[in-house]
Task: inverse folding
C-alpha cells in the first residue's frame, strides 16, 4: 500500500540553497580553490580566531552529549545583552528557532503571515505544521506592515518579519516596526528575524531586545551563521518572554545544538573586533558591487545586509548571466523562487572576489 503523505506536506516547495563549491567543481570541472561562492550570505572573512582556537580545543569532549541547556552560551548572551537566561533559547541555526515557533504556536488551519519576497523558510515551516501561509504584498520590495495589519484575522497565530529581509536586503525603520507591534493583537506571536542584525550600523538597529519587556508576544531570532561566520556549525538563538521560551523548550529537540557550535559561539561573542572588521569589509564590498551595478546600468535593491539583489532584463537573461558566472567559477543565487525571476542575488565577498564577480558580470555577452 502506498504511504500516504499529508496533502499540506506534498505541497511544500523544497528550500533551494546556494550551490556548494564541491558540486560546481564536479559539474563545471574547475578546481575548488578557484571557485568563488557568493551564493549563501556567508562571511568571506571566515570565523573569529578566538572561535578557531576554541574549536581546536573542544574535540576531546565530543564523545559526550552537548549541554542541552546551552548554559555557557546563555550566560554569555545574557551578560552582553542584559537578558535573563530564561529569555533565551538556543537553536540549530536560527532556522531552528523559526521552525520551533511554528511547531509551538501553529496548528492545522491556523494562518501565518509573512511578506511577499520574504525568507523562504517562513512558508515551509508554516506549511509543515498544516498552517496556511498568507503573503502580505510588499511595497517596493520592502515589508508593507499596513498590509500585514489588514490581513490579520481570527485565524492568524504567527507573524514572521525579516529585518533586514533576505533576499531583498530591505530594512524596516525601527519606529515603524514598533508602531506595528503596538497594533498587533497580543494573542498573535510575532517573530522578528534579525539574522543580519550585526551588519547594521548601530544607529539603524532596532532596540528589539529592549522591546521584550513591552511585548510578551515577541520572539527575536538571531544567527551565528552570518557575521559570526559559523554557518557550517549551525547555531542561532531566540529571545522572548520566559513564558514563550518555556513552551518552545518543550518542543525543542533535547540536544539540538552540538558541543563545538556552542563553544565556538561563546568564543565568537568575545571577539568584537571580528564583527567590526566583518562589517567594515562588508560596507567596502557593498560599495564595490553597487558602484559596478551603476556603471553597468543595472538596477539593484539597496541592501542593509551582506548581499544585494540586482535586476536583469528578464528571467532568461538572469539565467544566462547566472550560468556565465557559474561557468567561470562564480556562484551567485537565482531568486525566481522568491517571485523575483529577473533578479540574481550576490553575497558580498572580499575585494578580489567582488572584482572577479564584476569582471564576469561585465563581460557576459548576451
Ligand atoms: C532572513 C534569514 N533568516 C534566517 C536564516 C537562517 O539562518 P541560520 O539557520 O543559518 O541561522 C537565513 C539564512 O539565510 C536568513 O536569510
Result:
Amino acid at each position: 500500500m502506498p504511504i500516504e503523505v499529508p496533502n499540506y506536506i506534498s505541497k511544500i516547495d523544497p528550500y533551494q540553497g546556494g550551490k556548494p563549491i564541491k558540486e560546481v567543481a564536479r559539474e563545471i570541472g574547475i578546481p575548488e580553490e578557484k571557485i568563488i561562492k557568493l551564493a549563501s550570505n556567508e562571511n568571506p572573512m571566515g570565523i573569529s580566531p578566538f572561535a578557531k582556537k576554541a574549536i581546536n580545543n573542544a574535540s576531546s569532549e565530543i564523545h559526550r552529549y552537548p549541554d542541552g541547556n546551552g548554559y555557557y552560551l546563555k550566560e554569555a548572551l545574557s551578560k552582553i545583552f542584559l537578558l535573563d537566561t530564561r529569555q533565551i533559547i538556543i537553536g540549530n541555526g536560527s532556522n531552528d528557532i523559526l521552525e520551533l515557533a511554528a511547531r509551538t504556536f501553529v496548528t492545522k488551519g491556523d494562518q501565518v503571515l509573512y511578506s511577499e519576497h520574504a525568507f523562504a523558510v517562513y512558508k515551509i515551516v508554516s506549511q509543515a505544521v498544516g498552517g496556511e501561509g498568507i503573503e502580505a504584498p510588499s511595497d517596493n520590495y520592502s515589508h508593507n506592515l499596513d498590509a500585514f495589519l489588514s490581513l490579520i484575522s481570527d485565524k492568524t497565530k504567527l507573524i514572521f518579519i525579516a529585518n533586514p529581509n533576505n533576499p531583498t536586503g530591505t530594512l524596516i525603520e525601527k519606529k515603524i516596526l514598533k508602531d506595528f507591534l503596538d497594533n498587533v493583537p497580543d494573542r498573535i506571536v510575532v517573530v522578528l528575524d534579525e539574522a543580519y542584525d550585526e551588519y547594521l550600523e548601530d544607529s539603524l538597529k532596532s532596540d528589539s531586545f529592549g522591546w521584550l519587556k513591552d511585548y510578551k508576544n515577541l520572539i527575536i531570532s538571531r544567527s551565528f551563521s552570518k557575521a559570526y561566520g559559523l554557518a557550517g556549525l549551525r547555531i542561532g538563538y531566540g529571545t522572548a518572554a520566559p513564558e514563550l521560551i518555556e513552551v518552545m523548550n518543550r518542543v525543542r529537540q533535547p540536544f539540538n545544538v552540538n558541543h563545538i557550535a556552542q563553544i565556538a559561539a561563546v568564543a565568537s561573542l568575545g571577539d568584537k573586533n571580528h564583527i567590526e572588521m566583518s562589517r567594515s569589509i562588508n560596507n567596502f564590498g557593498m560599495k564595490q558591487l553597487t558602484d559596478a551595478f551603476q556603471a553597468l546600468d543595472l538596477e539593484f535593491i539597496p541592501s542593509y545586509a551582506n548581499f544585494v539583489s540586482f535586476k536583469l532584463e528578464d528571467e532568461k537573461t538572469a539565467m544566462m548571466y547566472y550560468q556565465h558566472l557559474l561557468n567561470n567559477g562564480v556562484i551567485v543565487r537565482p531568486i525566481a523562487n522568491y517571485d523575483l525571476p529577473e533578479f540574481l542575488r550576490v553575497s558580498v565577498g572580499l575585494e578580489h572576489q567582488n572584482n572577479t564577480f564584476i569582471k564576469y558580470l561585465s563581460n557576459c555577452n548576451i
Q: What stands out?
A: The chain has two domains: 7-46+273-362, 49-269. The first strand starts at residue 36 and ends at 37. The radius of gyration is 20 Å. The chain has 14 helices and twelve strands.
